[in-house]
Write a structure and sequence with these properties.
Blueprint: E1 2-10, H1 15-31, E2 36-41, H2 45-48, E3 54-56, H3 67-74, E4 79-82, H4 87-90, H5 92-104, E5 108-114, H6 122-125, H7 129-138, H8 141-161, E6 165-168, H9 171-177, E7 187-188, E8 212-217, H10 224-241, E9 243-247, H11 252-263, E10 272-273, H12 279-286, E11 291-294, H13 297-305, E12 310-313, H14 317-324, E13 330-331, H15 339-350, H16 355-378
Parallel strand pairs: 1-2, 1-4, 2-3, 4-5, 5-6, 6-7, 8-9, 8-11, 9-10, 11-12, 12-13
Helix pairs in contact: 3-5, 5-8, 10-15
Amino acid sequence: MKIILGGVPFGSGNIGDEAILKCAVRIFRRNFPEAHLAAATFAPESAVSSLQVEKLPPFGFDHAYSMRDFRKVARRFDMFVWAGGTGLSDYPQIGADLLENAQKLGLKTVIWQVGMNREFNPEYFQLHGRALKISELFGITGYLERQMEKRIRERLQICVSRCDLIALRDQPSLIELHNSGEFPAAVYGADSVILQEASAGELLKPDAEDRRSVGVCIAEKLNKRKFQQAVDFFRHLQITENVRLVFIPMSENDRKLMQPLAEQLNPALDNVFIDCTQPEDIQNVVKGCSLLLSGRLQLTIMGLNALVPGIGIANSSKIANCLNMFGLPVFNNQSVIDFDQLYEECVRWLNTPDFADRAKDVRNRMLKRLEQCESQLKELEF
């Protein structure tokens, strides 16, 4: 049996995506130990070799390769797996292209722990530039954008319903998928990154002054006013709660966003800027934190893997979908953040000693759902 894992821009510098791939490989290898696995990724051969999978081009994301190229390669495979991410809303047109072409070739098609937000990616499903100006002139912007969404939902209804297994990562994603049609066989499990393991050792050394560590990942640009408010907030949190800040970038863009923020804080407080690039090392760092403020879903999941409470700082629903299961808060980064309230939540979760026990119960239920999805996966006939 030969299986393609794709449908996500793997290898593009996002550590969260690499965590998805590594955990998906682990899942498919343990369910199909004799299978030949291939990953469609931007990553160089040297980076892929450690996974012991065949490297394929990132079909759908690299314009140098067409769907015709995908079909040529896919003919020698038995299954195509849309392997995770929030692709049903972030890039549904790419996922639909891949599923439709794989289905025409007679491959088994699987949607594996993919998420879906309430809103489609504005880059693709909102008008921009000249098209926006013309549509505004005629007062039809809303109508045209609704038509774009309607068309992609109709495509999803057809190609997703034809899949041999539809396993979404959480219940809100499954509910949102049903806004595109009827999918009676669809189920939900848990994001594959719930299986991420930490590397050996202790990468985040204990603080010399025995302060607790608060992990931070800012993933969206802060305007000038919000930037200063964030600086004041972190200064206040450090002084009043005696904590060390640990900045954890999940991409190069995260690093660029957080460096100016870190530079504005008192260097004498010995904050830490993490340089890790491997998911297992990020998981290792997170387990040394007492609280996580995160704008990245996979980092949030890694925190919960280590039973570390998290507070979401993001404008998408995917982090809220995750944290809501644990009773944890989310602040919308695109609206006006109440930094006083954010501070109160930080103090609350830094001082909630029974969180780990409650979180363990939630994770166990998630792992059970993932196990049930794997049972259905293993039953697919070839």
